[in-house]
Amino acid sequence: MTLSTVFWVAVLSQVPAETSAEPWQPHEAECYRREDAEDFAAAGDACRRAFETVPDGPHTFGQRSLFAFKAVRLYKRARAAGGHVAPLCSAAAVLRAFGAQLATLPAGERSSDRADVADGLRTIEPQIVGACVEEPADDAGDLIDVRRRQPPADPPVTRSPPRTDTTRTTVRRRPLRIAGGVALGAGLGLGAAAIAMLVRAENMQAQVDALNATYPAGVRIPDAEWTRYQYATIRGERADRLAIGLGAPAIAAALSGVVLLAIDAHRGRAGHFALHPGPAGIRFRMEF
Fold first, then answer.
1. Transmembrane ranges (predicted)?
2. CA of residue 167 relative to chain centroid, distance
3. pLDDT for 152-197, tens place per residue?
4. Whose CA is closest to 73, among 91, 61, 56?
5. Which residues contact 48 (CB under 8 A, 6 or more apart)?
6. What is the dihedral of CA 243, 249, 250, 256, to 10 degrees?
7. Cβ neighbours of residue 53 under 8 Å, at least 6 residues apart?
8. What is the pLDDT of residues 218-249, one digit of tens each?
9. How many other C-beta atoms can be found within 10 angstroms of the C-beta atom of residue 189?
10. Secondary structure letter of residue 277 according to DSSP
11. Residue 82's closest CA among 40, 45, 48, 129?
12. What is the band of 273 on the pLDDT scale with cuts at 50, 70, 90?
């Protein structure tokens, strides 16, 4: 087993299991990125994919509610910006899907979400009557010229002239330098991930503080805002744990890389020059 293999086993064994991302997180990030770019239809599609990929769990319906209604709001903004009715078709599809999921719950649970779904459909459906029709399949492909279906001919092979250079190059491998570089790169990467988690935790805490300021003790919080509060709290705590879990191996990996590179540099200075006896006296050689 090589030194780099031992290092990776040690580093990966310290990373907590929670570093694996939830399946909806990439879609959530894409949703916010598209929203910032004012590409509201694409942002709605990304939030819709986040809604569809939320796994079953104790907070399933809270997360799905957040993504579903955010997707609907984005689709409405896309409709207002572009004038096309297609985003409203997507909004209605999201509401129907979420409504079907809510119907599986016992009567009375998440009554606010049920009411919001019904209100949303009452508003949207009159605007899309007869407009949400799937496009027919394209049958024109059968009329394509057969010659277009044939793969392009391979380009002619040009043979390069034989090499006349008779020089030989000797490469001296430096395993410590390679392992040190890999370790240092891993440490920097894990450190960047830890910093990102700290920033995310700070953002989630800011949302929690804002909700606490809006709804002080004794004031009833609406269901939608309570869902946001729980969601921000859970994500903030998870980001804190990830930052701590990534920080320790990041420091260990970076220090290991620096030590390995220092050892390699010390050995390199000692072994780059050599004196060899020869027929005409002592010969001096430098090796790289």
1. 178-199, 242-263
2. 48
3. 445 555 555 555 544 444 445 678 789 888 888 888 888 888 898 8
4. 91
5. 67, 68, 71, 90, 94
6. 170
7. 23, 24, 27
8. 777 787 787 887 888 898 888 888 889 888 88
9. 14
10. E
11. 40
12. very low
Cα separation values, 284 from 20, 266, 269, 272, Å: 55, 20, 15, 11
Per-residue 3-state assignment (H helix, E strand, C coil) for 179-228: HHHHHHHHHHHHHHHHHHHHHHHHHHHHHHHHHHHHCCCCCCCCHHHHHH
**Which pLDDT belongs to residue 143?**
34
Token pair 């049920």: residue: 114
Question: Who's near 115: CB < 8 A, 6+ residues apart?
Answer: none
Tokens coding 26: 């990439």
Q: In this structure, what token pair is assigned to residue 212?
A: 């606490």
Give 2's DSSP letter. -
Taking Cα atoms as reference points, which of 145, 58, 128 lies closest to residue 93?
A: 128
For residue 151, the SS3 value is coil
Burial string for 41-73 (b: 16+ CB within 10 Å, else e) reads bbbbbbbbbbbbbbeeeeeebbbbbbbbbbbbb
The structure's pTM equals 0.45
**Letter for the amino acid at 230?**
Q
Q: CA-CA distance, 206 to 196, in Å (whole number)? A: 15
- Write down the H helix ranges in the chain: 3-14, 25-36, 40-52, 60-82, 86-102, 111-124, 146-149, 175-214, 223-271
Tokens of 37: 């770019």
What is d(CA 244, CA 195) in angstroms, rounded to the nearest whole number?
A: 10
User: Could you tell me the two tokens for 151?
Assistant: 């793969």
Q: How many residues does the chain have?
A: 288
Which stretch of 24-38, 86-100, 151-165 has the lowest confidence by average pLDDT? Answer: 151-165
The one-letter amino acid at 18: E
pLDDT for 134:
55
Q: Which tokens is 226 given?
A: 């309570």
